[in-house]
Fold this sequence. Notes:
The chain is α/β, with parallel strands linked by helices. About 45% of the residues lie in helices and about 15% in strands. The chain has 2 domains: about 5-90, CATH 3.100.10.20; about 95-295, Up-down Bundle (Four Helix Bundle (Hemerythrin (Met), subunit A)), CATH 1.20.120.920. The chain is built from 11 helices and 10 strands. Strand 3 and strand 4 form a beta hairpin.
Amino acid sequence: MISPNDFKEKKIVVIDGFNQSINDIKFNNGNIRLYKDGKYIDQITCFSVISLLIIGEATLTTKIIDNCQKYGISIFFLNRSLKYYAEIMSKAEGNYLLRQKQYQMTFDECLKISQKIVENKIQNQYKLIDTKFNNFNDINLCKNTSELLGIEGSCANIYFQTIFKEIGWYRRAPQTREDIPNLLLDIGYSFLFNYVDSLLKLFGFDTYKGIYHQLFFQRKSLSCDIMEPMRVLIDKQLIKLYHLKQIDEKDFIFRNGSYDFKKYEFSKKYRNIFLGVISQNKEQIYKYIYEFYRYILNDKKYKFPIFKIC
């Protein structure tokens, strides 16, 4: 487990295989070395890396994979459209006490945590649109997650229609990419999800064992839970892009029923912006997960964390 002070120096490293500037990655004396056609280009100390995002094709040696595990570095693989398709995760699976706590959590304990997650998410959403939410008592009165989902869904409809009203918002449609805002939200949320997932695994959580999001085949439900109050970081950044006129519709193309980038090069701008906002808030994200970890181990001693937006 990384201490909060050590984490301050950690960063996400993007390796772009499509621009052909890097096509080989090796390990050397505690450093990740980057090569182009066998020629050494640059290196990064492993102590400063929390995760590698590899876009496109690159060659990894077994030594680099072994050392990424040793230094707690997770590796994510993305395609040209910035869709995640594989991972090599750094884990702390030996933390059996934590996982025992996860697996033995009662219905009432799960409901209590779910209520806190939804309340925190709605607080952040309504703060962003400068609107008061007066029904927090309804959240605490929910008897199951289905009732919580109903409240969350109703608030989400109001929230999205309000925050994106100036850009001709129609609806939130995950993974459909039916319009440009949904495409960009999918990318931003995906980066945030993978980042949260990598941190949770560093502490030893089983990220498939959710609390608010229930068990579902191949879904990392706990990572879905923990990123909920943080989603507003991506929403806020998207509306900022529109206000600053940084979104150029000529960068996109509609084909086969969904939007994509007209050229791969156009995606870099948006990728870097969303990764940038995650990096800017990395300490706060880590602190939330760190406090969540302590709460799960001892909820009598520690309070459930709150993720606040500026």
